[in-house]
Amino acid sequence: MAVLNTQQVSLAGVNPAFVAADALGDEWANSGRSYLHVKNGAAAAVDVTVDSQTQCNQGFDHNVAVNVPAASERRIGPFPKSRFDDAAGRVHVAYSAVANVTVAVVEVP
């Protein structure tokens, strides 16, 4: 599992640096104001699953699953800390495929 660096949006703008999605998944420190930007350069859709760490009051864990169509992008988030943070304050994400998939974590101050 790779640790992604969070990139800050500013008044000067940000051109996020994208990295290859890790086959074992990715994680990052969650501020509650960050989002995951996924670029799918593959010829097939990719499912991105963000792991919810807290069960609802009915006892279910509602992970967030987002389908990113071929040759498309999605911005997913923000991630409320009470729902998505693990014990270390990190968000975990998994991908159904990683070939030609790049990601960046961007945070609004």
List keywords for this structure.
five-stranded mixed beta sheet, globular, 10 strands, mainly beta, 109 residues
Question: What can you tell me about this protein's structure?
Answer:
- With 109 residues, the chain is mostly beta strands.
- The protein has one helix at 81-84, and strands spanning 2-3, 6-8, 19-20, 26-29, 34-40, 46-50, 64-68, 72-76, 90-95, 101-107.
- The strands form two sheets. It has a five-stranded mixed beta sheet with strand order 1-4-9-6-7, with no helix packed on it.
- The two termini are 26 Å apart.
Secondary structure elements and their pairing?
Blueprint: E1 2-3, E2 6-8, E3 19-20, E4 26-29, E5 34-40, E6 46-50, E7 64-68, E8 72-76, H1 81-84, E9 90-95, E10 101-107
Parallel strand pairs: 1-4, 2-10
Antiparallel strand pairs: 3-10, 4-9, 5-8, 5-10, 6-7, 6-9
Which regions have little confidence, pLDDT < 50, spanning 5+ residues?
none
Instruction: Evaluate the radius of gyration.
Output: 14 Å
Characterize the overall form: globular
- Profile the largest sheet: 5 strands, mixed
Element order: H for helix, E for strand? EEEEEEEEHEE
How far the N terminus sits from the C terminus, by CA atoms, comes to 26 Å
Helical content, roughly? under 10%
Strand order in the sheet with the most strands: 1-4-9-6-7
Structural class based on helices, strands and sheet pairing: mainly beta
- The oligomeric state is single chain
Helix run count = 1
Strand content: 35-45%
Tally of DSSP β-strands: 10
Q: Averaged pLDDT, please?
A: 95
